Amino acid sequence: MLTFTIRRLILAVPTLLFISLVIFLLLELAPGDPMAQVPLTVPPEVKAKMREALGLGEPLHIRYWKWLVQFFWIEPQVLFDSIFDTSFSEGKQRILSWQTRSPVMDMVVQRLPQTLWVVGMSYVVGILIALPIGIYSAYRQYSIFDQAGTFVTMIGFSIPPFFTGPLLIMIFAVQLGWFPSVYDTTHVVNDWDSFMVQLRQMIMPVMVLALQTTAQISRFMRSSMLDNLNQDYVRTARAKGLPEKVVVMVHVLRNSMIPVVTAIALGIPGIFGGAIITEVVFKVNGIGDQLLNALFANDLPSVQTLAFMIAVLIVLFNLIADVLYGVLDPRIRYD
Amino acid sequence: MKVKTLMLGAAAAFAMAPAAMAERGADGHVNIIYWQAPSILNPYLSGGTKDIESASLVIEPLGRYDPNGALVPYLAEVIPTVANGGVAEDLKSITWKLKSGLKWSDGTPVTSADVKFTAEYCMHPEGGCAQFAKFEGVDNVEIVDDLTVTVNFAEAKPNPYSAFMGGQSPIIQAAQFADCLGAKAPECTSANFAPIGTGPFKVDEFKPNDVISMSANPNYRDPAKPAFATLTFKGGGDATAAGRSVLETGEFDYAWNLQLAPDVLAKMAEGGKGKTVAAFGSLVERLEMNMTDPNPALDADTRATRKAPHPFLTDINVRKALSMAIDRNLLVEIGYGQAGRPTCNLVPGPAVYASDNTDCLTQDIAGANAMLDAAGWVKGSDGVRAKDGVRLSILYQTSTNAVRQDFQALIKQWWSEIGVETELRNLNASVFFGGDPGSPDTFQKFYADVEMYANNFDGTDPQAYLAMYRCGNEPKPESQWQGENINRFCDPEYDKLVAELSKTSDLETRYALAKKMNEILTKETYTIVPLVDRGRVSAHANSLGGVVLNTWDSELWNVSDWYRIK
Amino acid sequence: MTETLEKKIEPLQDLEPSEPPHSQWKDVWDQFKKHKGALMGGSFLLLITLGVLFGEYIWTLDPQKLDIRNKDIRPIYTILWDSGAKVQWAHPFGTDNLGRDALANMIVGGRTSMAVGWVAMLLALSIGTTIGVLAGYFRKLDGPLMRFTDLVLSLPILPLLLVAVTLFRDALRAHLGPETGMFLLIVGVVGVTSWMQTARIVRSEVLALKEREFILAARSIGTTPGAIIRRHLLPNVISPIMVSATLGLATAIITESALSFLGVGFPPDFPTWGKMLADAVPRMDQYPERVVLPGMAISLTVLSVNYLGDGLRDALDPRIRGR
Description:
The complex is a heterotrimer of chains A (335), B (566) and C (323). With 335 residues, chain A is mostly helical. In chain A, 75% of the residues lie in helices and 0% in strands. Chain A is built from twelve helices and no strands. Chain A is globular, with a radius of gyration of 24 Å. Chain B has two domains: 240 residues, D-Maltodextrin-Binding Protein, domain 2, CATH 3.40.190; 187 residues, Dipeptide-binding Protein, domain 3, CATH 3.10.105. In chain B, the strands form five sheets. In chain B, strands 1, 7, 8, 9, 10, 11, 12, 16, 17, 18 and 19 form an eleven-stranded mixed β-sheet that branches. In chain B, strands 4-6-5 form a three-stranded antiparallel β-sheet, with helices on one face. Chain B has a three-stranded antiparallel β-sheet with strand order 13-14-15, with no helix packed on it. In chain B, strand 16, helix 11 and strand 17 form a beta-alpha-beta unit. In chain B, 57% of the residues are buried. At the A-B interface, helix 2, helix 4, helix 6 and helix 11 of A face helix 5, helix 6 and helix 12 of B.
């Protein structure tokens, strides 16, 4: 397993380089112009000058090379500097966003905490709700609990967040006035009261996102449990007199986790990617909001950097999932 | 002469503004929400409205436009005119005098060197300055003394109020931006995010594309203002959510530009926490007729260029019929409500420039049908008119936006009633309004027969705006599809008027010329079919006083006068 | 006693089968019939499909016909609690802000949504299952195919869409007309960008299954890999595939609406359930029916597909069948 992990990690480097190239070319090929949000009153000659100042005049391969150097060489130096208080990166050109003309990484650092708080929390909440629902629905298949669970989760999944978000705002912010409709990103948590304020403003976005996660994970959990509950080994386990709790929670659950782990692992890079629509609806300044902003403004350095960071996470978590399969089911062997 | 009377009006408006609160910062905190989030606080590096308006809280120009479009001095003592000797008789220079005793928020004095530096900063060839057009024709900026500068123009400039006027070209501090000239401009992140200014507020913290925290500028020139000690400027989301947070939940005090359907806005206003305010500028939603052939079968160098005239839109009867079939009053009722007025003019204001052209305001489907019949366009068996094998089949494109899609549906219906077949297309705004020459979907490339969007002009003078429609200024392959004459309109007579307008300084003659040019483009040729004069609707909380909506400059132009109603 | 001896001793005979041998599919159908949810889901789905296919012949109003005088009509049931509501029998589901009939739009919009949902879901499912099975079963293919999956997963979708629209729209429009062309483009894009989860999940199951004894047995008697995949692997991964299918159908319908929302989807005069829902969100407190009706249509379709999938899975599983 260890050699497998190491081999995969080494293999990940060329894969990621290739992915970064494909993303770069895709963004180049896509129509769009960083000047799209500049008002029409600005004449075309001025826009042409502004494009030149962004470095758009340079040939493709030079721009790609520059990005590679900035991402893999200069940005790590900046990180090193900020941790150890050195000055390796002084005077070196970092990856600058076209929209704000500031380093993309600074914005990522500024926004990551909110994303991790809101989206990460909703993911944890979603999984914590989904697993018991999935397990119990499968164990008592076609019971009222199962039917109701199926009904609610499927409705939750088929209603998009651009609807559930405003709906919650209508009910809880406008009518009842319980929670704020705009997420206050300048809020600092330093005591119990401010923590409660933070909790109140997080509830709605977390619920909207958790609904989606719950629906998805509980479906996979239920179907996978159902497959395993009918297996011969379950009958054997019961026959040898193991308590029902052990049979279900140890034997069946462990064997049912494989597709669930895949689904969960696939979702984790999504956490860092943020939840675009929900972040926009509640005005949480997370990574998803940044990505959407950058996409609409055709801010290519930002999009490229964010997309690539998400790609790294995807590759990493898929590797972790693969390793977990081996742990969950020792029969799975890669080498 | 006229400028002076307008200015008197402005002074009167100022006098009527509520008496200032006794003490700076007495009214605590104010919250502003813009549904587009500011990315940078330096208007010279970004042309976006959100950036210009948020920056206008901090940095100020020499003069601004007031809600009537008149000029008001800000950092300048007075607005220079030919009459008061500030503008040279030959119109080749303008001399500005700063108010004395002005201080930057860091306590250092504001001098004419800062003004000169601002011009150098924007006119640097490698800087890619977004407001370069404001400095067009400026030869040099001369320091006369500590508080006086003279701007010299290369040739006579009938409208000298472009540089240092309005929210787009505020004065920046020379000391702060000294190392940020040219190619280095984007690297000065801290200066771009927190410029030192003369405005009522100073930046405490800027989170790009999210929120700005500000506090009152301790060195603001009026010791009693601003009434608010701190200010939060939140950005992002959509117009619906912004309107809701002011009108229904009362979380915010001011929301900018609520582009919402009138019934949605009216329902929100029932929330009772705030009210809406509306004002009109020069923004006109219009249909642009393509005078060239967008047929995809043509090769890339010919398609939608002047080499290939349009098969049927070159017939004025067709263009006029398309305009006659439209009920502009209904469009306003459905899409804009109090924030729109039906119009037939490309230049709807200021009033002195607006032509009294109202022919198009009544819908006349029967008349349009009769005219097309007379012009030889006969209805075929499918109900679509044709002549010599050319069918009146139109591809009608616009950007994605709920109101525009409603307009498309209505106009398609009316056109079907006069025997014109319409295919609708909506495009992502960032592609449509971008100038990517590789994309077939930009408004400049115009690979469609008719397109709809809105445009306006900066300040109050339409000269540059009307000059866009001169021959040769059209987007074409040789110019990488850049150009402003979207319709590919070309008329030597019109070009003569353009040249004349750029030389004329007498205001009455300018008004007459501009009206004539506006009529050539609209009611004489129907090249541009204006639909709605679009106003601006913003909302403020009931408890926020002093708001005067201004469409000719930054909406936050008078934020120093805002106060809390108790 | 003696009489019995005289009887000839006949060879032992099988009982005649009481009925002719029935096929595996009949068993499947018998099992399926027992699943009430599946039957209900199936018939509801059939109803909705017939409705959107043939509804326009019964309800003949033109969905694009604007009638400004009759705008903002409420659905007929509003009269139950609000006698002053503006209702008309001519528009049982009401009309929108331009006076377009909601029922007619639901019918036409449903046809597009259902078609997009099914085709895109089937496309994503077939790509995902193929890649997942191949990667899971053949070790040599695992690396390249999974790295390819990682690549597609990490591509930002919006630029991908814009590229696809730029490259293919004009060609498709020229050959197939604006509607079919756009349909193929959207179905293609949604399908091509949503198969990755299925692929990873199917692969993970196959990885576990292929180490099991019955696969070893099949291999040891010389079954070809193709046959092993078809006869032994696919039937055993049917349940995650079914889940992916139900989730995929919902995702495809919603993704389509998001595309229109971003201006890269269907032309504006081309209603779909997702788009009707998205357009109505700003007015949801005044006209809740405009979000509820299309929202319910999507949810009920997804729910019925879900129940149908449950029933099919039970019916196809030989271990459950006959119990």
